[in-house]
Design brief:
Layout (H helix, E strand, L loop, with lengths): L4 H7 L5 E4 L6 H15 L5 E6 L5 H14 L3 E7 L2 H11 L3 E4 L8 E8 L3 E2 L6 H10 L11 E3 L3 H11 L8 E6 L5 H8 L6 E6 L21 H10 L3 E5 L6 E4 L5 E2 L1 H13 L6 E5 L5 H8 L3 E5 L3 H11 L3 E3 L5 E3 L8 H13 L5 H6 L5 E2 L3 E4 L3 H12 L5 E3 L4 E4 L5 E6 L5 E8 L2 H22 L1
Parallel strand pairs: 2-3, 2-4, 3-7, 8-9, 8-10, 13-14, 13-15
Antiparallel strand pairs: 1-5, 4-5, 5-6, 10-11, 11-12, 15-16, 17-22, 18-22, 19-20, 20-21, 21-22
Helix pairs in contact: 2-3, 2-5, 9-10, 9-12, 14-15
């Protein structure tokens, strides 16, 4: 059957498939997506591995997707409940394409599909999603060959063993580790990965799998969703707190004082550890990650490589350059040893190893990797972002030391301060990131730029 182009393109996005269950996504739709995906990969694959998160709609939708795949003659391997990086592991282990049913940190009413080719290679807009979208719109051709078959395989144990084989956690000092799963998939994977480590005592928070997210949104990027873990770390006397998003592919860190550790500092720490294995290796960081990251990479003998924001860009550069590691401000961490894909749990193991191999508390350890103060990402609703960006640049005039347009506009003020303004691809938003030497300088620069944005927006109304 054919479908309206606008409806399909609203759901099949640049990086994944995502929409409201029942309104934008249903069993018939995902079955057609499964069939189109099977046609996309059929020349190089004979099976597809499928996993799903804890959302109420995920088992039914993943079953419908599997039916679409099998109707095109490919076999299906069902791994059941999984984190996204566990699905990537299965894709690498079995050397076959994969599909993960999740809407990550989105509310319960949503669901979606993250797709990859064999070896966890991403499928995005330019690498297959447009083709899938076009086929769903036109109507996926039927296949007249034999129907595929389905088998079940539990890979959680293999996934845990593999991650622990990449990080030596055999001789750590005793650590109490608080983990906030946010009722998401870390409640399933954290016991399997961290539980077998003899020196680790897990203190679980919100491990019950519940796709309605009854305690808080499973999005630790929002500081409001870290509050429970910060309090829990202090209450339990934990050495470290770990918070995961809904599909458990991102990991955020809280120190023993209940203070959030910036993902930039985690990026720098993991990069330093990886560079001890391969001096001179390339480390990728996105352009709104702290400038402390490239500084530390150079100091540790590595080669820093700056990227646009977005996992498709970093994964592409990982494959192109053979980079050993990559990190983003959003707490996505990419590893060459993990097929170039991202794994929050693997990053967590690196932080635990770094903490447990020495005697200092986490706050002191991470101070080695914190050099600047940052605003975090701030969003402004605007009607004409390009004009407002031009107005901001004009106002700074001669204060601008250097400028580039790799992703939005990044302005170096030459005094240890910089800011980036990027337009959202999907919303009328202008995103601001600021970094300077002190919290006071951050606040002053944010206020100045915010006032310029507000003034520009007022003039356009």
């Amino acid at each position: 059957m054919s479908r309206p182009a606008e409806a399909v393109q609203r759901v099949i996005k640049a990086y994944d498939v995502r929409g409201l269950v029942g309104e934008e996504i249903d069993e018939q739709f995902v079955s057609e997506v499964g069939a189109a995906f099977a046609r996309l990969v059929r020349d190089t694959a004979h099976q597809v591995v499928i996993g799903h998160d804890m959302r109420e709609s995920s088992p039914v939708l993943s079953t419908a997707f599997a039916e679409g795949v099998m109707a095109q003659g490919l076999d299906v391997v069902r791994i059941g409940l999984a984190s996204t990086d566990q699905l990537y592991f299965a894709s690498g282990l079995l050397d076959c394409p994969g599909a993960m049913f999740t809407a990550s940190h989105n509310p319960a009413a949503y669901n979606g599909i993250k797709l990859c080719r064999a070896g966890a290679k991403p499928v995005g807009k330019e690498s297959g999603l447009v083709t899938i979208s076009d086929e769903v719109i036109a109507g996926v051709p039927a296949y007249d060959g034999p129907h595929g078959t389905a088998t079940d395989r539990d890979v959680l144990g293999d996934y845990g063993d593999f991650l622990r084989s990449l990080v030596d956690v055999s001789e750590l000092r005793p650590l109490k580790v608080a983990v906030d799963a946010g009722n998401g998939m870390a409640g399933h994977t954290a016991p399997g990965v961290l539980g077998p480590i003899p020196s680790v005592t897990l203190s679980p928070l919100f491990f019950e799998l519940d796709g309605t997210f009854p305690n808080h949104e499973a999005n630790p990027l929002d500081p409001a969703n870290l509050v429970d873990l910060q309090a829990y770390v202090l209450e339990t006397g934990a050495d470290i707190g770990l918070a995961f998003d809904g599909d458990a592919d991102r990991c955020f860190v809280v120190d023993e004082k209940g203070q959030a550790v910036s993902p930039s500092a985690v990026t720098a720490l993991v990069a330093a550890r990886e560079l001890t294995r391969e001096i001179g290796a390339t480390v990728i960081y996105n352009l709104i990650t702290s400038r402390a990251v490239p500084e530390l990479v150079i100091e540790r003998g590595g080669t820093p490589l700056r990227s646009r924001v977005g996992h498709s860009y970093i994964k592409g550069l990982m494959a192109e350059t053979g980079a050993i590691f990559g990190g983003e401000h959003s707490a996505h961490y990419y590893f060459r040893d993990f097929w170039g894909a991202d794994s929050g749990m693997l990053a967590a193991l690196h932080v635990l190893a770094a903490l447990g191999e020495q005697d200092r508390p986490l706050s002191e350890l991470m101070a080695d990797y914190e050099r600047y103060e940052a605003s975090g990402e701030l969003n402004y609703t605007v009607s004409d972002a390009p004009k407002i960006v031009d107005a901001v640049l004009a106002a700074f005039g001669s204060r601008v030391h250097a400028i580039d347009h790799l992703d939005g506009v990044t302005v170096d003020l030459g005094d240890g301060s910089w800011f980036n303004l990027r337009m959202s691809n999907t919303e009328p938003l202008l995103r601001l990131n600021v970094e300077t030497r002190t919290p006071e300088e951050v606040a002053a620069l944010v206020d100045e730029i915010g006032a310029l944005i507000a003034s520009g927006a007022k003039e356009l109304t």
